[in-house]
Backbone:
């Protein structure tokens, strides 16, 4: 089967808008995170090899390697998120009086939490890397760091919604609470860090004139 | 020449990360806006034809039509933004003592403001449409409305940075101020509206359990 990330940007967007079961908000979140992470790599790529930034070149190379790994994984999560949708949809379709329904739905809901949960974690990691390129990387690409921060911020919060929507239907309320708490803890720290980075970039862009 | 939006999602992301001159932050912003707008259309598509929402069907159809137009235009802007990059890059490469440099650079900078400026405007329009589907559309797709709001919020702010970075180098300071003021006025209104919508959705998702 064709992977969603092998669709053209135009076709992916059209499929997202349509009644096709996938992609949905989770796939859009993963792609946005991958785009934000790619902007981090772009700034790193334009910094490496520049005499002015020779002193931080090793750090930037390390950032680039980590950003590339995050980007690869976030792109994979577009399709992993989609793969968890069919079993979830099938579970919801089981008649309410069927004795297997609860168990199957519980398992499918738990599974559907996993891809967005990882998207949250990876988008938060990307924020740390963007902070490092903001501090050390080429100032020529300041606006790209800001866009990266905004996209990763939106990605982690979008992915979080896709966790919440699935924990909401879990029978095991303790497991649901633990998952929500894990996501909340990450958003509380990294949401504001992404926002502050974007505000900082915006301020600096408007000052440099 | 192959359009950027005809690249696969994977290849677009790789090109964004690379030292290829385009896409950059502006293209990523337009794509994020198109994805957010597509989520608005998706919610509309799942609402239309449902008995429960028959009373608002005409409104939702009108929203869908507008969202589809915004999405089409935002996708076009990915490549229009890229097309403005080559002349800008060429203008910066003109030797500083060349008497034509200032005029050519001024024109290229002004042109480079246009695509991101329109992205800001269209992403703000998408926020209005998302508000309407949040109010009237299927509650089954609540998380997708939230993701749409987050992506359009990130798109408008990312696009704004790509205006600021170009107005910064304009010689005509009055024109620069006017452009910045136009963008600021839109962000001041629609940035918080996108954020509030996302917070509202998040709260509702976590309550429904």
Residues:
């Amino acid at each position: 089967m064709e992977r969603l990330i092998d669709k053209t940007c135009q076709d992916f967007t059209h499929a997202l808008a349509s009644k096709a079961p996938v992609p949905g908000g989770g796939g859009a979140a993963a792609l946005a995170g991958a785009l934000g992470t790619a902007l981090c790599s772009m700034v790193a790529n334009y910094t490496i090899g520049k005499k002015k930034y020779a002193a931080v070149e090793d750090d930037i190379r390390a950032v680039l390697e980590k950003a590339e790994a995050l980007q690869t994984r976030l792109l994979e999560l577009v399709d992993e998120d989609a793969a968890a949708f069919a079993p979830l949809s099938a579970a919801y379709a089981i008649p309410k009086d069927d004795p297997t329904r609860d168990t199957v739905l519980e398992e499918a809901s738990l599974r559907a939490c996993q891809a967005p949960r990882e998207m949250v974690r990876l988008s938060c990691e990307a924020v740390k890397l963007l902070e490092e390129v903001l501090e050390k990387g080429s100032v020529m690409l300041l606006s790209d760091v800001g866009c990266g921060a905004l996209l990763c911020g939106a990605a982690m919060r979008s992915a979080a919604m896709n966790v919440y929507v699935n924990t909401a239907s879990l029978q095991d309320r303790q497991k649901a609470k633990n998952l929500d708490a894990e996501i909340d803890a990450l958003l509380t720290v990294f949401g504001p860090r992404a926002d502050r980075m974007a505000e900082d970039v915006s301020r600096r862009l408007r000052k440099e004139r």
About this structure: Helices of chain A lie at 9-17, 25-47, 57-83, 85-93, 101-136, 142-167, 173-207. Residues 47 and 53 of chain A are 7 Å apart (CA to CA).
